[in-house]
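Working notes for the structural subgroup meeting. M.R. asked for a predicted model of this chain before we commit to crystallization trials. I am recording the input and output together here so anyone reviewing the notebook later can reproduce the run.

Input as submitted:
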Amino acid sequence: MTRRHPSEADTEVVAESGGKSVRSPHNLEIARVIRDHHASVYRYAYRLTGSQADAEDLTQQTFLTVHQRLDQLREPDKIVAWLFAIVRSLFLKERRKKSPIDAASLELDVHEVPAAVEAETPIDRQALQQAINELPDEYKLVLMLFYFEDCSYKEIAEKLEIKIGTVMSRLARAKERLRWRLAKLAGEYAGSEPAD
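Returned structure, recorded in C-alpha cell form:
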C-alpha cells in the first residue's frame, strides 16, 4: 500500500481511529477553514500579540476552538468575523490572566491633545510595532482591524460587537495615543500622555 504525503493544498484531513483512517465531513470542513483563513488569522494574531511565537500559539488555539465549535457557526458568510471574534476573545482572555482590565476604563472620554507627530516623521517598523503593542487592547483591536485588515467601521463594529460610534472614538483615541508614543520615541514631544 502506497502512503500518500499530504500537501499544503490537500483539503482532506484523515483522523486516526483504532488504526484505521476515517475521512470525516467535519474534518474536511475544518481543513477548508484552515486553508482559506489561516493567513489572515495569523496576521491578526501577530498584530495583536506583536510576537511570532505568541501569534502562532493564538492561531493554533483559534483553530482548535473552531474544530470544537464549527457546528455553532450560524452564518457561514460571516466566518471571517466569527474567526476574528474567536481570536479576539482568546487574546483578551489570555491578557486578563496576565493583567486584569478594568471594565470601567473601556469607555472613558479622551481629553484633547495636540497632534505631536507629522505624517512625514520617519519611524521604523520595530518602533511602530512597539508603540502599537503598548496601546490598551480595546484601542489596539480597532487599530489593527482598520489599518492592517482594511476593515470598514461597519465591519469592525460587527466583528467586535460594538457600535460604529464606539469604533470611531476608539480609533481616534488609538491614533492619538499612537501619535504621542511615536513622538515620545522620536524625542519630539515631552507633554503628558493622552488620557483614556
